[in-house]
Design brief:
This protein is mainly α. The mean pLDDT is 91. It has a single domain, classed as Hypothetical protein af1432 (Orthogonal Bundle). The radius of gyration is 19 Å and the shape is globular. It is 72% helix and 0% strand. It is built from ten helices and no strands. Pfam families: HD. This is HD domain-containing protein. InterPro entries: HD/PDEase_dom, HD_domain.
Length: 197
């Protein structure tokens, strides 16, 4: 990434630190999400501009927390997606991000808690980076990490990170479908419904 873009990301990093001044938990969260997004993006060999937008989105992805808390007294994912884009747009304009960069970053901020129909790489990577951090910060159990990773993670780099960090196996084995069908049949039978011949 060229020097000018790197400097712009550093300015954004500081602006977000000031945005969450006095809230080290939120600052550490976006720093970690940015770090993982950067690593996954590089591992997936993203083009420079795509990487720049991804990293910008990772830095501001939770910017909607503060306005959500101020307006509604809460900051769940829906509120973050609702309140985040406008706050991100204002900050990105101050730092003279290009209009197309602002448009994409604010779109990502407005969708980073929506996990169906993820088609674009920057969106996929942002979600994976956020999950990697949330699993740890929320103390999620290993079996739940493994199940959700299998549903969410798609990039080779993100899968490798999750498997290494949490000691889970995400890649689906050849017998995965059979094992899950058997597990589902056993669950159904335990509910008193019998389907086996």
């Amino acid at each position: 990434m060229d020097k000018k873009k790197r400097e712009k990301l550093e300015q954004l990093y500081w602006k977000m630190t000031e945005w969450f001044a006095g809230d080290p938990k939120r600052i550490q969260h976006f720093v970690k999400v940015h770090s993982f997004a950067e690593l996954i993006g590089k591992g997936e060999q993203m083009e420079e501009q795509e990487q720049f937008v991804l990293e910008g989105a990772a830095l501001v992805h939770d910017i909607g927390i503060r306005p959500g808390e101020e307006k509604y007294g809460r900051c769940d994912g829906k509120i973050q997606e609702q309140e985040g884009p406008a706050a991100a747009e204002k900050l990105l304009k101050e730092l003279e991000f290009a209009p197309e960069e602002i448009e994409r970053i604010t779109w990502l901020v407005g969708h980073h808690h929506t996990y169906d129909n993820i088609a674009e790489r920057d969106y996929q990577i942002l979600v994976e980076a956020d999950f990697l951090v949330n699993y740890y910060e929320d103390g999620i159990e290993k079996d739940k990490i493994q199940k959700s990773c299998r549903k969410i993670f798609r990039t080779e780099t993100g899968i490798r990170l999750c498997e290494t960090m949490y000691g889970v196996t995400i890649k689906i084995s050849e017998t995965w479908a059979q094992d899950n069908i058997r597990e589902m049949e056993e669950f159904i039978e335990s509910q008193g419904i019998y389907i086996r011949q």
